[in-house]
Amino acid sequence: MGKKKSKLNAKLLQITVVPLILTGIVILLSTYITFSRTMEKEVQRGLSSLAITTLHAYDRLYPGDYALVERNGEFAFFKGLYNLTDDDNYLQEIKRDADIDITFFYGDMRALTTLKPMDGQKMIGTFAHPRVVEDVFKGQKAMFYRRVLVGTQNYFAYYSPVYNGDGTCIGMIFAGKPSDVVQKEIWKAMAPTIGVVLVMTALSCMICSNFTKELVMIISRIRKFLYEISQGNMKAELDGRILQRKDELGEMGRFTAHVQRSLREMIERDMLTKLYNRRIGELKMRQVYEDAKVEGGEFCIAIADIDFFKLFNDTYGHDCGDLVLKEVAAVLANAMIGKGFAVRWGGEEFLLVFEHMRLEQAVEHLQNLKEKILSYEMEYNEEILRVTMTYGIVQADCGQVIEASVKAADELLYYGKTHGRDQIVSTLTQS
Asked: Is 276 a residue whose pLDDT tops 50?
């Protein structure tokens, strides 16, 4: 009997394990394919947006047409009267902040670029891939390439024609990331999902044959849940009956939901401060803006910056700087409860959105927040540290694009930073 029972157990395990392994493989493949496409589309949107933004920025900063001038055997790339070759700080900031390479082509030749070959020299004077020249420069059509050879490295790249004021196509702009970097980002983002699927499969293999039908039903629902997540639906809900179970199946469901929350946090939150990251912050701010336009409501936008933040890194090290950012972010997040939300805008800058408020009320709340920051003590290596912050705040103008209000708040912040710091600058104080 013992031997027959052993064979029966083996048979039941075989019946459950094989379908589960196949299911796991299908989930992984569908998740990988869907997630890869989603990530690639996100990268494409990011590259095209950055390229277009760069062109607009250059039009604002340097009025005039593009031109390539040869002097003493060397080329200088001009826009209007400005020699862009001598000042590529804007492109280098993009490279440093976004880790994306930008290149301006005059014709098919690289005239201005952040690309560097192995010897460390810029690739100015080298030429675009012939296929790109044919598609974009001659065809005058923006194109994405998943793999295009730039120097000795393949890039995931966006190319767009560049025009002078008379409508003449004079070259191209390139925005790209190395293909292997994009692929690593996809795998890194996929890792939690892969782990969840493997854990679920391993746990499910231990289910007794008496629960086979129930097992198939539960896995089917979990699979649907995972598939929706892989499609980018981070608001998908798992059947509550699974979450309420006290056995391994309930644990699988709760673990999957936890991974969903973790994935959502990874996508929406800044990893260090746990505040909304800039991408999600912009989306939420735009939603507040659209709601205010429809409902006739009011809201305010503030940008805050930690004063002399670099001193913390230089004096105590980057661990101290990270501590300061986390502690300040926690104070901001707590202070904004019931008033709006806080966003890590970049570096030591934070964006604060005060919902359903006029400027006078928002400034009052901001003054209370300023006092909390001023009195807040942080301990690092048995030393007590304090920080001050400078703030620029405006009442959002729903008659303009939202970027205009953000820019206005940033300009007020800059005024505060250059006129003493540790202060709130608003249109009330400027008037």
From this structure: yes
Tell me 114's DSSP state. -
Q: Is the whole-model pTM more than 0.85?
A: no
Q: How far is residue 200's CA from residue 187's CA, in Å, rounded to a whole number?
A: 19
Structure tokens at 89: 């700080």
pLDDT in tens, 19-37: 777 777 777 777 777 777 8
Each residue of 258-273: pLDDT tens digit? Answer: 666 666 666 778 889 9
Q: How far is CA 173 from CA 47, 62, 103, 133, 170, in A?
A: 11, 16, 6, 11, 10
Burial class (CB in 10 A: 0-12, 13-18, 19+), 91: buried
Residues linked to residue 302 through DSSP beta bridges, in sequence order: 352, 393
Question: Cα(104)–Cα(171) distance, rounded to whole angstroms?
Answer: 7
Q: How many alpha carbons fall within 13 Å on the CB side of residue 296?
A: 0
pLDDT bin (cut points 50, 70, 90) of residue 151 is: confident
Cα–Cα distance for residue pair 38/28, rounded to 1 Å = 15
Position 8 scores a pLDDT of 33
60, 52 contact by CB (below 8 A): no
Taken in order 92, 93, 99, 101, the sign of the CA dihedral is negative
Q: Are strands 378-380 and 383-385 parallel, antiparallel or unpaired?
A: antiparallel
Residues 64 and 80 sit within 8 Å (Cβ to Cβ): yes
Pairing mode of beta strands 389-395, 424-426: parallel
CB 170 within 8 A of CB 181: no
